[in-house]
Amino acid sequence: MKAITSSDLLEAAAYALVSERCRASYVHDIRGGLQALYGGVELLSRAAKNPDTGSLADKAAGLARSALVKHEKSLVDLVDQLAPRQEAAVPVNIGELVGEILRFISNDVANKCITFRLHTERDIVVLAEAHKIRFLLLGLSITLTDGLDAGTVIDVNVRRSSDYALIEYASVILSPTIPQLAEIWGSTTPLSSARELLLSLSQAWASDNGGRLELTAEATGSTAVRLYYPAIPG
């Protein structure tokens, strides 16, 4: 049995916070899958009322099966995303992943009148735990919008920087420091936001894998978040 460390507990807490924060986005995705399934069933119903349309019945059955398979896969993916899990590192296309994350939270962000502008280079691939890196980037993306004024634009840049994949969130107002996980665990002072916990976890994860997380003060008075992670040569 694996011993449970303070970092494990902080990570589990972060998963709970991010899952709660993204509840509306998860529900939206589930409903989208059900809509496709409903369409296939509705077509089957029409075909059943007209026995002479055999081709329509075959088409409807095919659509329903395809929708069911996709919905089952999305539910399995959802379960995998909601809690920490042991997994092997695999190649991950960072630009595609960030794009998928920003689409996933687009309704939530739009409701706050905040805009993400994504600029990404093609084919930047890293070797990482797929669900872990998605969780951290999702947590950073959604919590970095908290407390921002309506109308704020966040430029998200994904590019290669020397031997690293660089994910940059620009024009984000943040506290100037990232607390260490040991400081969070041993402190009796509450964190001011879930964002601090996600920054700390991302910093520790990047460092453990040969990368780093930086906060850089901009001339505009805001702070940019830059996450560096070793890229696969390409």
Global outline:
elongated
Distance between the termini: 39 Å
Beta strand count: 7
**Unreliable stretches:** none
Q: Overall pLDDT, averaged?
A: 84
Taking the sheet with the most strands, its summary is: 5 strands, mixed
Task: Give structural notes.
This protein is about 55% helix and about 20% strand. It is of the alpha+beta class and about 230 residues long. The strands form 2 sheets. A 5-stranded mixed sheet has the order 2-4-5-7-6. Strands 1-3 form a two-stranded antiparallel sheet. Strand 4 (about 155-160) and strand 5 form a beta hairpin. Helix 2 (about 25-50) runs antiparallel to helix 3 (about 55-80). The mean pLDDT is about 85.
What distinguishing features does this structure have?
53% helix; alpha+beta; two-stranded antiparallel sheet; single chain; five-stranded mixed sheet
Write the layout of secondary structure elements.
Elements: H1 6-21, H2 23-49, H3 54-81, E1 89-93, H4 94-104, H5 106-111, E2 115-120, E3 125-129, H6 130-143, E4 153-161, E5 164-172, H7 181-186, H8 194-208, E6 212-217, E7 223-230
Parallel strand pairs: 2-4
Antiparallel strand pairs: 1-3, 4-5, 5-7, 6-7
Helix pairs in contact: 1-6, 1-8, 2-3, 4-6, 6-8
